[in-house]
């Protein structure tokens, strides 16, 4: 019985100790004092018999000395049973903390065999080796297993639970079987767990150390990464499970943790998901309204666990985000930061509860502040159309609709911004009661503000400090409460504002003028107010503001005029105002201010629609309406538009523009008797520009003009004169008309038929037409392609005689163009012209024209050139021109080269060419009297100076003059009219001894005789050889040839050329 009782006590003790051992192992900590006491009681319950007593038979109460066999057997059985029991207890105690259990064992079983074995093993055995991966795991788990209060986010808290279970499991595994660490599978699993835990530690540090907004921006990627790594750790635990099959309980724990970690789901909350999507949209740089920004702040505050009204804490979170993104390279993250900073700045603005407050002094009827529920939570402004959602929150209709639209665009469920509640319905119920209260409040304040505005605007002069507030108030009333515009109008405020612009325009400045125009612009939407403004002269005031100093004033003036342009009568008034269209046209073309340019262009297009404005617009340079009607209108409209255009003075740019678009229409109108006169006038205006004249030629205008000029159409003299003048303008510049057909038979303008008809027309046409015909002949003859042909055709008949008769028309245009035409003819038909002039005894007319002080410079220039081109004999030079004419020519030439301040200028007029040509007549003459004048007037010096002229023709004539002077000198030397030779004979040696130069040294190598140092007939003495040599490289061949001819006699004397080169 005693043995049975002992066994029962032993079983009870073992079960008791087993339970506490499991509990201690699960906790992984030292047993509390209460539990140590329980263990002690369990050990002591084995009874008073000590374990070592079972090895001593004499001490055993059940020992029977008489029964040696039985007693020895029982003693042996007891001893074996006790040792086994002791070892079981030690094994259980080992599963808990080693130090505690060993001390208990020493205290309760001091003499046991197991204690001696345990102590011996503890002294002799080495501690198990800890794998390096286990150290990394222990370090990571220590960092992760922190109190839950450390984390603001649910996901890291959930993973911390897995980390604690993993920590306990690994501790239990290596204390139960330290030798398992040497297994390759265990080492692989531990390395994998260590790597994944290190990565998870970095992610968890983001949750713990970064700002909350930063976590929200990256919450989706953090959740995905955390779930991925948790699953990986579960996989490594599965590998560890295959190694510890010998420990069923531990294997089950590993299996459960592996399964839980593989099935772990780390998700974002609905609010976090919404805020994440919203922030990502902000990272795309999308524009947002104030209402949407407010809703974003409310969502963000809920996700952060803050009150949306706690601006300081929200701003602090944004600053923390800014610190986190200090080195970020993500464009999206930086855009999110900029957007949040902008939203916070707007959110910090105080509610706009003083929209209509003018800051007047406190009176009984001063501004009434609104109740808080009058303000929309999103816009912070007084609501105009309050609506209620299913969340029972009230918003401004437009504001909440903006938010709903944003939610739908982002692909998220619409929510109530204030509560964050997901709305099942977007229905918006009007809050009629609140709307009525707000309307009553608004009307009361509007009446107060109108009353105060009238008071301040009626002051004389009005207070500049208060005018701005008054104008802002009136503008807001008109814009935000359009139904109250009639109250402003009936109070006379429109007239008062116009009067301020009239009387105080300078004193109030550009800024306030712009605000006044802006208030009137808003009030102009009221038809009666617009009529009042128009009657008060607002059109002129707005046009005056088009030159305002600020862009805002000019913009408001344009918008106000644009508002008035919707009525045709107003359009006529605007266009008739002096300078209005010019200002608008200049603003439309000024691209430095695109907004103003677009407004001015739009206003001009509206004005173009009114028929009465076409002429005003064309006068201001806007020809499009006129051109459009000229090209696409009826015959009557075309005639009317052509008449307008014919009376206008056109710029060169406008001429080309009109010619390109209307040339064909205008040419077609020449066949219409009613449209011929206005069309001819327009064509005449357009033909004054070379580019537009070329366009007219391409439109076959010459064919139609010749029919009118030569009388093939029933044209009156006036039409004939205009047609001839137009033709003269076209042919005045060569290069574009030479190949154009001039009549239906295909003749060109310089054909024999056309030239003959023009010469015949001179006989029976009007004086003005004669001028045009002479101009036409001059233009045709000036063309390089037609000069010789025209000259031959004119001289073949009585053309020269016909033209010469106009030289006596004093002070008329016929005389001018007659001289021009004869000058061209003299260059190619000088002999024929000279013969005709001599036959008619008109040669003196050219000389008289040169001496006539009443003649124009061009007439004298042409006369000089004609006279220079005529072949005159020596006798004619002496008799007709004479020595006095030579003196006059030299004097006039010097005058052409000197200006009043005394500076010598390079001659550029054709007068110099004519005068040089006249000098050639004299230097070709071998008269002794002329020789004296040549020396006296120093003609060689004059010619030499002209070698440096910029005009090729002047250089050519100067070289020829030097050539003729050199030839004159040789002729003089040949006739013996030279200086006396040096003394010869007996006295010559004495002269030599006295220092007289030898005769050979004084001999000119060109003339083979002595030449005076101041000789006007020797190129060498006149220093002309070097300038002539320089002309060899001139760009013009005629100049080079003349220089060669002048130096040809010198080529025999290379020493002369070398000394001068």
Automatic annotation (TrEMBL):
Catalytic activity: S-ubiquitinyl-[E2 ubiquitin-conjugating enzyme]-L-cysteine + [acceptor protein]-L-lysine = [E2 ubiquitin-conjugating enzyme]-L-cysteine + N(6)-ubiquitinyl-[acceptor protein]-L-lysine
Enzyme Commission no: 2.3.2.27
Gene Ontology biological-process annotations: protein ubiquitination
Biochemical pathway: Protein modification; protein ubiquitination
Residues in U-box domain copies: 369-448
Signal peptide region: 1-26
Alphabetized InterPro entries for the sequence: ARM-like, ARM-type_fold, RING-Ubox_PUB, U-box_domain_protein, Ubox_domain, Znf_RING/FYVE/PHD
Region (Disordered): 52-83
Entry-linked Pfam families: U-box
Source organism, top-level taxon: Eukaryota
Name of the featured protein: RING-type E3 ubiquitin transferase
């Amino acid at each position: 019985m005693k043995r049975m009782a002992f066994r029962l006590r032993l079983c009870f003790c073992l079960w008791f100790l087993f339970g506490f051992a499991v509990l201690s192992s699960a906790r992984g900590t030292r047993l509390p004092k209460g539990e140590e006491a329980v263990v002690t009681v369990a050990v002591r319950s084995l009874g008073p018999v000590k374990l070592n007593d079972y090895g001593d038979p004499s001490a055993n109460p059940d020992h029977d000395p008489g029964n040696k066999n039985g007693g020895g057997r029982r003693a042996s059985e007891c001893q074996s049973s006790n040792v086994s029991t002791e070892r079981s207890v030690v094994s259980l105690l080992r599963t808990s903390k080693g130090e505690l259990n060993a001390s208990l064992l020493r205290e309760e079983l001091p003499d046991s065999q197991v204690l001696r074995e345990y102590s011996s093993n503890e002294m002799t055995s080495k501690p198990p080796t800890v794998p390096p991966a286990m150290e990394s795991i222990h370090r990571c788990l220590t960092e992760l297993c922190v109190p839950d209060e450390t984390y603001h986010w649910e996901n890291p808290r959930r993973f911390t639970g897995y980390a604690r279970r993993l920590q306990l499991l690994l501790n239990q595994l290596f204390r139960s079987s330290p030798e398992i660490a040497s297994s390759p599978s265990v080492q692989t699993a531990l390395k994998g767990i260590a790597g994944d835990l290190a990565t998870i530690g970095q992610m968890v540090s983001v949750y713990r150390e970064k700002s909350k907004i930063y976590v929200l921006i990256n919450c989706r990627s953090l959740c995905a990464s955390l779930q991925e790594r948790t699953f990986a750790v579960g996989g490594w635990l599965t590998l560890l499970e295959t190694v510890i099959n010998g420990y069923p309980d531990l294997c089950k724990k590993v299996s459960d943790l592996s399964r839980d970690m593989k099935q772990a789901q780390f998700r974002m909350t609905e609010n976090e998901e919404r805020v994440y999507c919203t922030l990502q949209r902000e990272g795309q740089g999308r524009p947002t309204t104030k209402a949407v920004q407010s809703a974003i702040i409310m969502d963000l505050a809920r996700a952060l666990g803050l009150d949306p009204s706690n601006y300081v804490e929200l701003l602090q979170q944004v600053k923390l985000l800014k610190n986190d993104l200090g080195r970020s390279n993500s464009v999206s993250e930086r855009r999110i930061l900029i957007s949040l900073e902008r939203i916070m700045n707007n959110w910090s603005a105080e509610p706009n509860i003083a929209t209509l407050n003018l800051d007047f002094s406190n009176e009984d009827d001063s501004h009434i502040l609104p109740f808080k529920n009058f303000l929309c939570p999103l816009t912070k402004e007084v609501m105009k159309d309050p609506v209620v959602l299913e969340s029972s929150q009230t918003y401004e209709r437009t504001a909440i609709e903006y938010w709903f639209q944003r939610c739908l665009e982002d692909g998220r469920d619409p929510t109530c911004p204030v509560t964050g509640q997901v709305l099942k319905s977007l229905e918006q119920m009007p809050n009629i009661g609140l709307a009525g209260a707000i309307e009553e409040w608004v009307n009361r304040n509007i009446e107060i503000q109108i009353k105060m505005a009238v008071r301040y605007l009626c002051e004389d002069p009005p207070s500049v400090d208060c005018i701005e507030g008054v104008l802002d108030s009136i503008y807001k009333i008109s814009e935000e409460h359009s139904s109250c515009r009639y109250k402003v109008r009936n109070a006379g405020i429109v007239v008062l504002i116009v009067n301020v612009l009239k009387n105080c325009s300078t004193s109030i400045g550009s800024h306030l003028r712009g605000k006044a125009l802006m208030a009137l612009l808003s009030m102009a939407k009221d038809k009666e107010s617009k009529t009042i403004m128009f009657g008060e002269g607002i059109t002129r005031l707005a046009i005056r503001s088009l030159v305002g100093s600020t862009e805002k004033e000019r913009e408001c003036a344009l918008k106000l005029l644009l508002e008035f342009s919707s009525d045709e009568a107003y359009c006529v008034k605007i266009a008739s105002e002096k300078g209005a269209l010019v200002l608008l046209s200049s603003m439309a073309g000024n691209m430095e201010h695109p907004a103003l340019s677009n407004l001015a262009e739009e206003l001009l297009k509206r004005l173009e629609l009114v028929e009465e404005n076409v002429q005003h617009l064309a006068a201001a340079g806007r020809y499009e309406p006129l051109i459009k009607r000229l090209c696409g209108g009826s015959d009557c409209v075309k005639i009317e538009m052509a008449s307008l255009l014919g009376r206008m003075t056109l710029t060169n740019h406008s001429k080309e523009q009109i010619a390109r678009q209307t040339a064909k229409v205008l040419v077609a109108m020449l066949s219409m008797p009613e449209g011929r006169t206005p069309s001819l006038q327009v064509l005449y205006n357009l033909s004054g520009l070379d580019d537009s004249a070329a366009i007219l030629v391409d439109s076959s205008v010459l064919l139609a003009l010749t029919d009118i000029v030569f009388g093939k159409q029933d044209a009156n003299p006036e039409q004939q004169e205009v047609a001839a003048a137009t033709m003269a303008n076209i042919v005045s510049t060569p290069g574009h008309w030479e190949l154009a057909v001039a009549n239906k038979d295909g003749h060109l303008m310089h054909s024999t038929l056309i030239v003959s008809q023009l010469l015949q027309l001179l006989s029976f046409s009007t004086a003005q037409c004669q001028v045009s015909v002479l101009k036409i002949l001059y233009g045709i003859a000036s063309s390089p392609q037609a000069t010789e042909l025209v000259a031959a055709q004119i001289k073949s008949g009585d053309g020269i005689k016909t033209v010469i008769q106009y030289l006596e028309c004093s002070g008329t245009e016929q005389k001018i163009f007659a001289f021009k035409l004869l000058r061209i003819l003299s260059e190619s038909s000088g002999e024929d012209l000279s013969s005709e002039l001599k036959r008619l005894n008109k040669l003196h007319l050219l000389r008289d024209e040169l001496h006539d002080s009443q003649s124009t410079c061009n007439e004298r220039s042409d006369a000089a050139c004609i006279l220079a081109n005529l072949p005159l004999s020596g006798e004619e030079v002496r008799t007709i021109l004479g020595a006095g004419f030579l003196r006059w020519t030299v004097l006039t030439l010097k005058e052409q080269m000197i200006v009043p301040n005394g500076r010598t200028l390079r001659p550029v007029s054709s007068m110099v060419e004519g005068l040089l040509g006249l000098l050639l007549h004299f230097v070709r003459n071998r008269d002794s009297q002329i020789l004296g004048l040549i020396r006296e007037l120093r003609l060689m010096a004059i010619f030499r100076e002209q070698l440096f002229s910029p005009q090729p023709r002047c250089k050519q004539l100067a070289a020829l003059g030097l050539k003729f002077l050199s030839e004159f000198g040789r002729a003089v030397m040949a006739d013996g009219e030279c200086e006396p030779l040096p003394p010869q004979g007996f006295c010559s040696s004495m002269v030599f001894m006295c220092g007289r130069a030898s005769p050979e040294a004084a001999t000119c190598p060109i003339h083979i005789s002595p030449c005076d140092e101041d000789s006007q007939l020797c190129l060498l003495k006149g220093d002309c050889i070097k300038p002539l040599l320089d002309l060899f490289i001139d760009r013009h061949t005629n100049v080079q040839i003349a220089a060669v001819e002048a130096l040809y006699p010198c080529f025999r004397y290379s020493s002369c050329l070398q000394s001068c080169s």
